[in-house]
Amino acid sequence: MNNKNTLISKILVLDDGAVHLESQKAICEEWHLLGIKPQQGDIEAAMAILKSNVDLGGIMLYENYGNKTGMGLKLAREIHNFRPELPIFLRRDSVADVSGLDKKDAPMFRCVYTLNDLQVLRATLDDSIFNRIYPNDLVRGITEMTSAALQALFRNCDIDVETPYLVKDSIIYGEVFTMIAIESNWCRGYMMLQAEEDSVLNLISHRAGHESRIMTFRDLNNVLGEATNMVWGSFKNRYAGHANGHGLMQSQVPIVINHQHRYISFGSEDSQLCLKYSLRESNNVQTEPVSIYQRFVFNLNWSPDEFKDNATMESLLEAGELEFF
Questions:
Q1: Considering only CA atoms, which of 293, 299, 296 is closest in space to residue 277?
Q2: SS3 labels along 200-247
Q3: d(Cα 210, Cα 224) in Å, to the nearest integer?
Q4: What angle, rounded to 10 degrees, do the helices at 71-82 and 43-50 form?
Q5: How does pLDDT run across 153-196, given as a tens digit for each residue?
Q6: Per-residue pLDDT tens for 290-325?
Q7: What percent of the chain shows pLDDT beyond 90?
C-alpha cells in the first residue's frame, strides 16, 4: 500500500478455502485491511452482514464460496444488486481473468486474481479503496477536536476512538444524522455525525440538571447539531485557511438520501474517512457504550498537498519554539 496512507479499511472476506487461510490473513495484515467473515459459509450469512450496519471498503470473494461450484458468482449477483457501491475482488483457482464467465457477470468485479499472483489485487486495492491520502496530522487533529467537542457536551462520559478507517459504502447508521458543508481552499465536501436516537437520548437525559424532565428528539437534534458546529468551527480555525469566497458560483452535485434503505450518495465513488466514537457513562460501567460515527466525504474538491496544520500551542511546545514562564 501507499506508505503515506496508514489508514485501514474493513473488508468482507467471503473465501472459505482453509488451505489459503493463513495467506489471506497475511494479505490483510500487510495491506492495512481489517478482514471480517461470517461464521457460516453460505449466502444467507453473507447477506445478513451486508444488511447490517457494518461499513466496508470492499469484498474479497472466492468463485466457489461455500465449497459449491459457482456459488460465489451467484452471491456476487445478490451483492451487486443490494450494495453496488462496494467493489468486489474475485479470487479464482486457475485464471486471473474473466474468461468463462457470463458477459453480464464480468462487469461486477473490480478485479479478478489468483493467489499465485497478487499484484493485480494489490494495485486494484490501491486504486479503489486507498485512492485518497488523508494526512496523518489531519486525521489526528479531527479525532482530537471531535473528542473535545463530545466531551464538552457529555461530561459524564468516557470517550474512546477506534482506529480511523476508509469506507466505500453509502449506508447510514442509526436514525439520526447531522450534515454540514466543509469548505476551504484545499477541500470541499461534507461532514456527518450519525447515531441511534434512543441510545443518545438516554445519555442526554443523564446529564447533570436534565433528570427532571423527559428528553425528546428535539433535545437530541440540538446536542448533535451543537457538536457538529463545534467540530466544524475547530476544523475551520485550524485547517480551513482562506476559503474560496470570491462570490463565484461553484459546482455542486446532487445528494441522494433513501431513508427506506438507510442510503446516502454524494455522487462520488472515492473512499470516505470514517471515525467511530464510543461514549460510556463514567459512573455506570454496566451500560453498553453509545456509538457515534463521523464521516468525511470531500466529493467536490480534495487537494491534500495544499493542506496545512496551523501550529497549536502543544506542537510549538514540543518543537521548543514556545515555553511557559
A1: 293
A2: HHHHHHCCCCCCCCCCCHHHHHHHHHHHHHHHHHHHHHHHHCCCCCCC
A3: 16
A4: 20
A5: 998 899 999 999 999 988 888 888 889 999 888 999 999 999 99
A6: 999 999 999 889 998 888 776 555 554 555 545 444
A7: 42
In the block, cell 458560483 appears at: 249
At residue 174, the pLDDT reads 86
**With respect to CATH, is domain 136-318 assigned 3.40.1550.10?**
yes
Instruction: Estimate to the nearest angstrom the gap between the alpha carbon of 140 and the chain centroid.
Output: 15
Q: Judge contact between 111 and 90, C-beta under 8 A.
A: yes
Helices (H), the chain: 21-30, 43-50, 71-82, 119-128, 136-153, 197-205, 217-235, 313-318
Neighbours of 167 (CB within 10 A): 23
Topology match between the domains 8-128 and 136-318: no
Q: What is the dihedral of CA 203, 209, 212, 216, to 10 degrees?
A: -40
Residues 169, 9 contacting (CB under 8 angstroms):
no
- Rounded to whole angstroms, how far apart are CA atoms 36 and 133? 24
According to CATH, what is the number of the domain 8-128?
3.40.50.2300
Residue 1 has pLDDT above 50, yes or no: no
- How many CB atoms lie under 10 A from the CB of residue 29? 11
pTM score, whole prediction = 0.80
Distance CA 25, CA 50 (A): 21
* Strand, coil or helix: 80: helix
How buried is residue 253: exposed, middle or buried, by Cβ count under 10 Å (0-12/13-18/19+)? Answer: exposed
Residue 59 identity (one-letter amino acid): I
Residue 89 carries which side chain, given as an amino acid letter? F
Q: Are strands 272-281 and 263-265 parallel, antiparallel or unpaired?
A: unpaired
The rounded distance, in Å, linking the Cα atoms of 35 and 21 is 11
Where do the structural domains in the chain lie, given as residue ranges? Answer: 8-128, 136-318
